[in-house]
Amino acid sequence: MSLISIIVPCYNEEAVLDEFYKVASETLADLEADKEFVFVDDGSKDKTYEILKRLKAEHNDVHYVSFSRNFGKEAAIFAGLRNCNGDAAVVIDADLQHPPRVIYDMYELWKQGYEVIEGIKSNRGREGIFHKMFAGSFYKMISGMMGIDMNNSSDFKFLDRKVIDVLSQLKERNTFFRALSFWTGFNTNTVSYEVQDRAAGSTKWSFKSLVKYALNNLTSFTFAPLYWIITIGVLFFLLGIGLAIDAIVDYFNGNTVAGYPTLIVLFVIATACILLSVGIIGVYIAKIYDEIKQRPQYIIRDKK
Ligand code: UDP
Ligand code: MG
Q1: Is residue 213 one of the residues assigned to a domain?
Q2: Ligand 1 centre and the CA of 62: distance in Å?
């Protein structure tokens, strides 16, 4: 019988963990495979770690990995992938927003030979309007640049051992799980699911962390922003030539009017573009620095 690992990143999830384990094991009782749960405590500040130790003592299909501090969901997912034993693994949120029942459909597709089975949101659940707009435009941008539809994509994914091995061996630290699983190029299929309301507890995303996440993933996956800078630069160069010709013509016609407004507008726009460009380049340089330090993506303090 094959073994399916259920990887659950957890950050301050004391309110839902027991329920998650209960609902998930009950729902998956009829799955024709062995199961193991791999909970990854992402440096929670609440009782998550204690609850995991207790679950581990009570059930022999539970394993956990606990970080020394919060390293983020990406790190938690990758730690789960590196510490699971399954012939396949599914990554699922601890808050029951990803209905465990969907794993049956994913499992069927895996049996048919698909290696990456993606959960696609048929709705976006209850998210703030701001979150919705922000996530929507971010994914549209990424989708356009990468040529894959990321809009309703999520971290709810079922992966074959081959994919797990490829992802586990990646040396980069600034990972973007959602896009990387496509990037591997394996045989992909999708299953759609309805996002549920969070069972308990609250979302771990603040506006600041969302912006950071978006910027991080954008720059780790594409050089497009650098090309935007070049395009803007070229446009300004052309505009500059136009203006120079205009000024020379004016000079020879004898009406050298004071072009003060033009100067101000150009100055403001040009300064903004320069600052933006330097900022974007700075992000890439920071990334290089970050990767070059070769620090681990996470630090494990306990694992069982
Ligand atoms: N999570 C994590 N580390 C973090 C933030 C979140 O492991 O730094 C986990 C969290 O415990 C949950 C999943 O990632 O299992 C999704 O988080 P959340 O429900 O807060 O996000 P949302 O569903 O609102 O996008
Ligand atoms: Mg959630």
Answers
A1: no
A2: 20
> pLDDT tens digits for 209-261?
777 877 888 888 788 888 888 888 889 889 888 888 888 888 888 777 677 77
- Ligand 1 atom nearest 205 alpha carbon: 20
Q: What's the CATH code of the domain at 155?
A: 3.90.550.10
Report how far apart, in Å, the C-alpha atoms of 44 and of each of 73, 204, 244 are.
12, 11, 60
Q: Whose CA is nearest to atom 12 of ligand 1?
A: 93
Residues 182 and 73 in one domain: yes
By most ligand atoms within 8 Å of CB, the mutation choice from 44, 78, 95 for ligand 1 is 95
The structure's pTM equals 0.83
Structural domain that includes position 161: 3-202+297-303
70 lines ligand 1 (CB under 6 A): yes
**Domain count of the chain?**
2
- Do 48 and 12 meet the contact criterion of CB atoms below 8 Å apart? yes
- Alpha helix (H) ranges present in 122-206? 129-146, 161-169, 177-183
